[in-house]
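input
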Amino acid sequence: SEGTQVIAVLDPPGVAAVVGLGGKVVVVGLAEGAADGQVREGDRAPQPIHAAVTAEERPPIALTVRAGRSKRWAVDAAAPVREIAVLAPPVARVALDGGRLRVEGLRAGITWAALALADGGIEVVALIVGS
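output
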């Protein structure tokens, strides 16, 4: 993704992650719980951050692909996807391909992709890469 780099350290790990997306700092909830830490956007001074993640009302959308393969999915979102940030780029790569998401599995694992929509909304999908 383009734009200002965002770096965050949260403790305990695995509760939430922080990415720069659509010109915003976005916190993605990964597991129920709370985490505290620091976030730095570009050259700005680090700022404290507290993330409280509650249980999902509905299960997240999960896209599955095998390592070394790619698949395309239609995006069922309120608006077109404008930007994508993958939390663990070594696991999967995601790109827009003719209005669809093209997910390439790089190595076995699970990660998340945050999608910035044209209307300012954000969708998050789980990416499961099998071996």
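quick obs: The radius of gyration is 15 Å.
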